[in-house]
Write a structure and sequence with these properties.
Blueprint lengths: L20 H12 L1 H20 L5 E9 L27 H9 L1 H11 L3 E5 L6 E3 L4 E5 L10 E7 L4 E5 L4 E5 L3 E4 L3 E7 L10 E5 L2 H11 E4 L7 E8 L2 H59 L6 H35 L16 H21 L7 H46 L4 H35 L5 E9 L8 H26 L6 H5 L6 E6 L16 H17 L4 E6 L6 H13 L5 E5 L7 H5 L7 H6 L9 E3 L6 E4 L8 H4 L3 H13 L2 E5 L8 H5 L5 E7 L9 H8 L6 E8 L4 H6 L26
Parallel strand pairs: 14-21, 15-19, 15-20, 16-18, 16-19, 20-21
Antiparallel strand pairs: 1-12, 1-13, 2-3, 2-10, 4-9, 5-6, 5-10, 6-7, 8-9, 11-12, 17-18
Helix pairs in contact: 2-11, 4-5, 4-6, 6-10, 7-9, 7-10, 8-9, 13-14
InterPro entries: AAA_dom (IPR025669), Bact_polysacc_biosynth/exp (IPR050445), GNVR (IPR032807), LPS_length_determ_N (IPR003856), P-loop_NTPase (IPR027417), Wzc-like_C (IPR005702)
Protein name: non-specific protein-tyrosine kinase
Catalytic activity: L-tyrosyl-[protein] + ATP = O-phospho-L-tyrosyl-[protein] + ADP + H(+)
């Protein structure tokens, strides 16, 4: 084997990337597939158009509430003496609490039922239904809305007169205006005719959904938040397809919220007034009886004046009497409240602030009243066996026990105080006993009168305070920005959808190209080869667009002919006066025979004698490509000593200086024939007769024939076919060169296709490019009518 000179120093094939080569390659791939980007972009824009065409727009309805927040001082009224009595009505207000109240399901349910938003109307279209507010009829549900178990959608088509046809995918039936009919899962329904200014030929319809689903939909579309923590305002937002309907629903929700707030305050106030009024009636009757007794006593005893001593005793007794009166009053109040609490079968709200000195007990009352009100609201739509009602009953039971215990403790303390006061009063009574009996009887009656009068005045004061507090009850919130729908829909956004459709449309071919590169396992470019091996590339042959096996002639100026000439030029530097060229590849079908045949003709154009040796003894193809009949060849010659070389040399028929040595009969042991001494003598004799010997060997990735023939070769041309050879197969030539099994190896790229502006214009150098140099200029494809 001849030693190689460092001709690569002059003709290097190492990659010399510029800073913008990757960018130009990427742009070239995009330009090469421009029609896919245009098509997918148009498809994306078209899909966005149809999406916008058949998607119902959604509008945003906004409102703002100002809430009286005791923590932030954002009350609706200026501070006054009347507002000091508001503690009688319950707990303090908090904007955070009101946000949670506005989100409660019970309040949303009241709004849904009041607005009947579980019934919707639409204009039936060919593709989708458009929600509307005004239709020629009104749906009247005659059964309880809570009895709706499943929803339905019905189209209403007018027939003749008042006759109507109702239909959906499951059923069709006829009815008339004001005629009752049954719907499965809904109940009894009636359609009421109403004035309508639209076209009578339009088809309308209605939908009915269960109330719980309508409440869930309202909860999802409703937004309640405090956007600024420094102020006590609540922002309400509602997304709705119909702006006017959204405004109505939000107005109804706010109205129901205000009504519920006032109702809770009035319930507590009314309960307190009822309790105080009952006590007033009792104390008034007792006071009247005592006064009657005094009047009768004076008449019967003819008592006109009391001695100075009696005055002193009465003044001293007055203090004890007042103290006993207050104590008895508190004991009576405790007994009355205890009666309220022990009535667990029909629990009622407990009056607040009746025992002002008992701070601990007053903290229990607001929570107890709140649970009673919540239980009453739940019982409006549920039974006592409902888990939520039972849960509240358990809370009430525990809270009632704590309050009863607190009352018992307070009563013990008051009784102890009463005993001490009574002891002192008894001491005073013993002193009064010394006065005349008439005067002593009057003192007893006067003391009883004072006790009852104190009770009466206390209860009358509390009644007035409570009545004033109830009159001063106002909503703790105020609408400062009424519900108003925005002018433009929030979804879908037209510009954004068109941009998104165009982006996704362009992204599809781009992603396809990227995935194609990621999943590609075959060699597609020179960069794929250079990334996995350092073996130099001798040349590249373009894709053969003709059916001819020989594409090189004396007069040919095609790009592929010029590439074979460039390959011939590069080969002269590699051979360095050598003559034998070995062709192999990784697998069958990579074009070894095609390149070997055309290279032979290209070398013959220099008036060189060339012999082609068909040494793929297992699957010969050169004879068939040349269209020659099968005859004696290599396998006959090496096993028959009597044959001479002239008997196996056949003219190729493609050029007078190119001959062929056929493979001959397919032997059972082709590898052994290649190493026989007669093979060496054959090659030696051929070197004397020819300028170049081209050996077409089988793929080295399948059999070892090429390795055996390498002993006779000066250079090995390893053929790689674009989009055919696997990337992993490059380990074969790498391993052969590393272990010295075949040296030297040069790559020849076959079936190379132009894949972009960069490659087409500049190629890869030294025969890798295949532009229009030397060719007749063609008209652009868009000027096809000017082509001849």
């Amino acid at each position: 084997m001849k030693t190689m000179n460092n001709w690569e120093d002059e003709l290097t094939f190492e990659e010399t990337k510029t800073d913008n080569k990757d960018l130009l390659t990427f742009i070239g791939r995009i330009l090469r597939n421009w029609y896919w980007f245009v098509l997918c972009g148009l498809i994306g824009v078209a899909l966005a158009f149809f999406y916008l065409r058949y998607t119902t727009p959604t509008y945003m309805v906004k409102a703002k509430l100002l809430v009286s927040d005791d923590k932030k001082g954002g009350g609706l009224l200026e501070p006054s003496a009347l507002l000091d009595l508001s503690s009688l009505m319950g707990t303090k207000n908090s904007v955070d609490n009101e946000v949670e109240v506005l989100k409660t399901g019970d309040l949303l349910r009241e709004a849904v039922l009041a607005e009947r938003s579980f019934i919707g109307y639409f204009n039936a279209g060919q593709i989708h239904n458009v929600p509307v507010v005004h239709v020629p009829f009104h749906v009247l549900l005659l059964t309880d809305p809570d009895s709706i178990s499943e929803g339905t959608i019905l189209k209403v088509r007018r027939l003749t007169g008042d006759k109507l046809e109702l239909s959906n995918t499951d059923t069709v039936f006829s009815t008339s205006y004001d005629e009752m009919f049954d719907l499965q899962g809904i109940g009894k329904v009636k359609l009421i005719k109403q004035d309508f200014n639209g076209s009578k030929d339009e088809v309308f319809g209605f939908s009915i959904t269960p109330v719980r689903k309508a409440v869930g939909h309202l909860s999802q579309s409703l937004g309640v938040e405090v956007t600024n923590k420094n102020v006590s305002t609540i922002d309400l937002t509602l997304t709705e397809a119909l702006p006017k309907r959204g405004e109505q629903i939000l107005q109804t929700l706010i109205r129901k919220y205000v009504e519920r707030n006032l109702h809770d305050k009035n319930v507590v106030a009314d309960s307190t007034l009822s309790f105080i009024s009952a006590r007033l009636r009792s104390v008034t009757a007792e006071l009247a009886q005592v006064e009657n007794n005094i009047s009768g006593y004076k008449k019967s005893t003819q008592l006109a004046d009391i001695s100075e001593q009696s005055k002193i005793l009465l003044q001293t007794s007055a203090a004890y009497t007042k103290s006993l009166a207050e104590t008895e009053t508190q004991l009576a109040i405790l007994d009355a409240i205890s009666t309220y609490l022990h009535d667990d079968k029909s629990p009622r709200v407990v009056p607040s602030s009746i025992i002002p000195q008992d701070i601990a007990f007053n903290t229990f009352i607001p929570r107890y009243n709140e649970l009673i009100l919540q239980r009453d609201r739940l019982l409006l739509g549920n039974t006592v066996d409902n888990p939520m009602v039972r849960n509240i009953d358990k809370q009430l039971e525990g809270l009632r026990a704590d309050m009863v215990t607190n009352i018992a403790n307070s009563r013990k303390q008051l009784e102890l105080a009463q005993q001490k006061q009574q002891q002192r009063s008894d001491q005073l009574t013993s002193q009064i006993a010394e006065v005349p009996s008439i005067e002593r009887g009057f003192i007893d009656l006067a003391r009883m009168q004072q006790i009852k009068q104190e009770q009466y005045l206390f209860l009358q004061q509390k009644w007035e305070e409570t009545a004033i507090g109830r009159t001063a009850n106002v909503p703790n919130s105020k609408v400062i920005d009424s519900p108003k729908a925005e002018e433009f829909p929030i979804a879908p956004k037209r510009k954004l959808m068109y941009a998104l459709g165009l982006f996704l449309g362009l992204l599809m071919p781009l992603g396809t190209l990227y995935l194609k590169d990621m999943l590609n396992i075959r060699i597609r470019s020179v960069e794929d080869i250079q990334a996995k091996t350092t073996i130099p590339i001798l040349g590249a042959i373009a894709h053969n667009t003709t059916q001819e096996q020989v594409v090189v002639s004396k007069t040919s100026r095609s790009p592929i002919a010029e590439q074979f000439r460039a390959l011939r030029t590069n080969l002269e530097f590699v051979l360095q006066s050598g003559k034998t060229i070995l062709f192999t590849s990784s697998m069958s079908g990579e074009g070894k025979s095609f390149i070997a045949l055309n290279l032979a003709v290209t070398l013959a154009l220099l008036d060189k004698r060339v012999v082609l040796m068909e040494l793929d003894l297992r699957k010969p193809t050169l004879t068939a490509k040349l269209g020659l009949p099968a005859g004696k060849g290599f396998s006959h010659y090496v096993v028959r000593p009597e044959m001479d070389i002239e008997s196996i040399i056949t003219p190729s028929g493609k050029h007078e200086l190119v001959d062929l040595i056929q493979a001959g009969a397919i032997p059972p042991n082709p590898a052994e024939l290649l190493v026989l001494p007669r093979t060496q003598s054959l090659l030696n004799e051929l070197k004397e007769r020819y300028d170049y010997i081209i050996m077409d060997a089988p793929p080295v990735g399948l059999v070892t024939d090429a390795q055996l023939l390498n002993r006779y070769a000066d250079v090995c041309l390893y053929v790689i076919r674009q989009d055919f050879t696997y990337k992993d197969q490059l380990y074969i030539p790498n391993d052969l060169e590393k272990k010295g099994k075949i040296k030297p190896i040069q790559f020849v790229i076959n079936d190379l296709k132009a894949k972009g502006t960069y490659e087409r214009q500049y190629g890869y150098g030294y025969g890798y490019g295949y532009g229009d140099y030397g060719q007749e200029k063609r008209q652009p494809w868009w000027k096809f009518w000017k082509q001849k």
